[in-house]
Amino acid sequence: MSRSTALKPEQVPADSKPTLEMFTKNIGFTPNMMATFAASPIAFNAWATLLGSLSKALDVKTRDSIGLAVSEVNRCDYCLGVHSFTADHMAKLPANEILLARKGHASDPKRNAAIEFARKVIETRGKVGDADLKAVRAAGYSDANIIEIVALVAMYSLTNFFNNVFDPEKDFPAVAPAGSI
Q: Which Gene3D superfamilies match (predicted)?
């Protein structure tokens, strides 16, 4: 049961309207999460800016895989539906790779290192070990890339926490828990 109501267009604060309209135009509809998040122009626009900046980090398959791994750890059903959909339709990841990502892995060794590191960051709240850093660096990631992975973990956690608190009505296909698949 949703704990919030997505804002109707006439309820959206003026400072959130341009950002929400941009997402609506790009996606083709207004996701309930965004129509709820838009109630706070400060938080919504800050998140949108971070999302836009981090869309240039790494590659789309790695970004979506990190989103899946983090959302699985944070048990965010809304985000798992969104990231499963985008991983399929935008990143073009096959179903087995989507499931692997949700479990914190990938068949590609370099992407696997990034996803494993991201999962370790969220599970340990950033208190990763030296071996974790050594492994992600050995896979070919620079310190700048590692910073981007941490930033992606934080950004996905923000939306996970938001959606877990407000539980907007689902408007992306639901997915089963990875443990039950």
A: AhpD-like
Match 């539980």 to its residue by tokens: 167
Structural domains in the chain? Answer: 12-54 (no CATH), 60-174 (1.20.1290.10)
**What is the Cα–Cα distance from 80 to 173, expressed in whole angstroms?**
9
pTM: 0.93
Q: Residue 8 carries which DSSP code? A: P
Instruction: Give the pLDDT confidence of 17-62 residue by residue, as tens digits.
Output: 999 999 999 988 999 999 999 999 999 999 999 999 999 999 999 9
Contact indicator for 73, 47 with CB cutoff of 8 Å: no
Say what angle helices 60-73 and 143-166 make with each other, to 10 degrees: 50
Which two tokens mark 91? 């990143």
- Residue 109 to residue 52: CA distance in whole angstroms: 27
